[in-house]
What we know:
The structure is a homodimer of 149-residue chains. With 149 residues, chain A is mainly α. Helices cover 65% and strands 7% of the residues of chain A. The first copy, chain A, contains six helices and two strands, in the order ααααββαα. A two-stranded antiparallel sheet of chain A has the order 1-2. In chain A, strand 1 (86-90) and strand 2 (98-102) form a beta hairpin. In chain A, helix 3 (59-66) packs across helix 4 (70-82). The longest helix of chain A has 24 residues, at 15-38. The first copy, chain A, is globular and about 60 Å long. The model of chain A has no long low-confidence stretch (mean pLDDT 92). At the A-B interface, helix 1, helix 2, helix 5 and helix 6 of A face helix 1, helix 2, helix 5 and helix 6 of B. The first copy, chain A, binds a DNA duplex (23 and 23 nucleotides) through residues 28, 31, 41-43, 58-60, 69-75, 78, 94-98.
Amino acid sequence: MSDILPAKLSLDRFLPYRLSVASNAVSNRIARIYRQRFNLKIHEWRLVAVLAERDCSTPQALTQLTKMDKISVSRAAKSLIGAGLVQASSNQSDGRSHYLSLTPRGRALYDEISAGALAIERQLLDDFSADERAALEAMLRRIEAAAEA
Amino acid sequence: MSDILPAKLSLDRFLPYRLSVASNAVSNRIARIYRQRFNLKIHEWRLVAVLAERDCSTPQALTQLTKMDKISVSRAAKSLIGAGLVQASSNQSDGRSHYLSLTPRGRALYDEISAGALAIERQLLDDFSADERAALEAMLRRIEAAAEA
DNA sequence: TATTGTTATACTCTATAACTATA
DNA sequence: TATAGTTATAGAGTATAACAATA
C-alpha cells in the first residue's frame, strides 16, 4: 500500500509543512548561536562563508552564490563593511560594480564560524549514514528544482 | 571515501543551507498561490487545515498541532474569524479559553485548498518513489528532533 | 537603452514582554 | 500564584519600485 499520494490532506504528513518545520528548527538554532557568539545575521554569515571560498566576488556574483536577492546582498555587505569584516575594492573592468573581500579580521572570524557550523551539522546528522546524507542532499536539490520550475 | 563530515565548510554542501533554500523555494511557491487564490497567509491556512482535521480545538491545542507560537495562533484566528471562515464558541470547563471551529464557508474553502495543496505536493514529488518519499519524511523528522534537542 | 547596485517603502514573520481575565 | 489568551513593540526577512551611475 503506497501512501505517497494521499487523497486526503493531513498537515502532519504534508511535505511542505514538514520541510518548513525542519528548516525552521535548524535555522532558529543556528541563528541564535551566530547572533549570540558572532553578532551576525544569517545573510551576513552567508556572505562571509561565500567570500571565504571565493574572495573578490562582485555583489552580482554573490546574489547567485548565496541565493539571496541583490537588496539583501547590498545590505549585508554594507553591515559587514561597517563591522570591519569585509572591504570593497574598485572593479577596473566595470565602474558600476566593485569587488568584495574579507579583511584579516573577517577571515579570522570565518575560521571560528566555520568550525562552529561544521560542529552543528555533525550534531544534526549524528545518526545519519553517508548514504543517507547524500540521499537527503540530492532529494532537497530535486525538490528545490521542482519548486522553481 | 565518505564525505559525510567534510573538514572544510562549503556553503553549497552545508545541510542547513540546502534545507533553507529548498524550504524557501517550496514556501514561496505555495504562499504565492494561497495568497492569490484564497487570500490566506501561511499561518491562516495551517489553522484551517488543522481545524478541518480536528474541529473545536482550543488555541492552546492549535499551537501544538501547528508548531506555531500562541501569538501567531491568536492573530491567525482573529483574521479568520473576521473573514467569516472560523467561529469561536465558549469553553464551559475553562472560562479563560474557548473553542475554534470552521464555519460552513471555512470548510468549503478548505475543500478547495486541500485539493490544491495535494496537487502541489504531487508536482514537487513527481519523480519520487514511495520509498524515497517515506525516507525523506523520516529524515526531516530526525533532523527536526536533533535541532530541538 | 540596459545593467549594476543602492535606497525607500511596505508587508510578513518572529520574539519578548506587558497585560487581562480566569483558575 | 499560575495559566490561557491578547496586545504592543521591535527586529529580521522579503518584495516591489524608484533611483543614480555606468555600459
